Task: structure prediction
Amino acid sequence: MAVKKLPVAKAINESLRTALEADPKVVVMGEDVGKLGGVFRVTDGLQKDFGEDRVIDTPLAESGIIGTAIGLALRGYRPVAEIQFDGFVFPAYDQIVTQLAKMYARSLGKIKVPVVIRIPYGGGIGAVEHHSESPEALFAHVAGLKVVSPSNSSDAYWMLQQAIQSDDPVIFFEPKRRYWEKGEVNTDAIPDPLHKASVVREGTDATLVAYGPMVRTCLEAAAAAAEEGKSLEVVDLRSVSPIDFDTVQASAEKTGRLIVVHEAPVFFGAGAEIAARITERSFYHLEAPVLRVGGFHSPYPPARVEEDYLPGLDRVLDAVDRSLAY
Result:
């Protein structure tokens, strides 16, 4: 059994390496992904080992990157395009939602566009403006796109493998402030399905649902709550589109309470859809309304105050107390 302890960034690097070795049609492309190895060094060493035709340094033109990736996919390649930072994706938004998302869906799968778009997202790294966004809900709203976000090294490795092998276009959101956190990766394992949620901590009093960078925060909240005699279940959603509502529903009905946590603003965030759907499905099983914890409905703030903006332990535990008070 090949088990390694890797940071999330290195797990993604290993996953890309595995995909490049396994399929000559896989190409990696983006700004500074080659010689530099990416601004977070996620693609470090790949161009050296696979050459400039497989790991391609592109111009600083996000629309051109995605447009080229679509063309490559239509010619039988499996491009993995990197958007250097979350806030840089918007020049490519038209290509993604009006071209990439439509071709596979409109043709009922006859036209395959297996493009993976890797986007480091979220805050917590003290970056300047346009470098700490959480735009996942914008893409989850678009039919024809799959939207996923790993929270740990094992999922980072395996979910990227599955995304590259999928014929669907996949937006792969990488929680950048978790890049350096280590976890075990079993490269011989049989992974869970790409869009299946995972119960990462069992509990009985309330359920916390999160994805990407907030999963660790929820696990820390559950550990803190346990010291006060509260038993919190934590569900890692893993996929934002589609959402595994069955796993969330089963947990919510087990505990009777549900709190959804994400970095993105609460207003029109993914938590709103989860809250509405679980309320429809499980109304008579709930002991309290579904609550949401997230960012504020404002532009991402300067780095010196981002910790006040980001949902942390106290905001999660406050929501737990409000839920238990019903």
In short: The chain has a mean pLDDT of 96. The longest strand covers residues 258-265. The longest helix spans residues 8-22. The chain is about 35% helix and 20% strand.
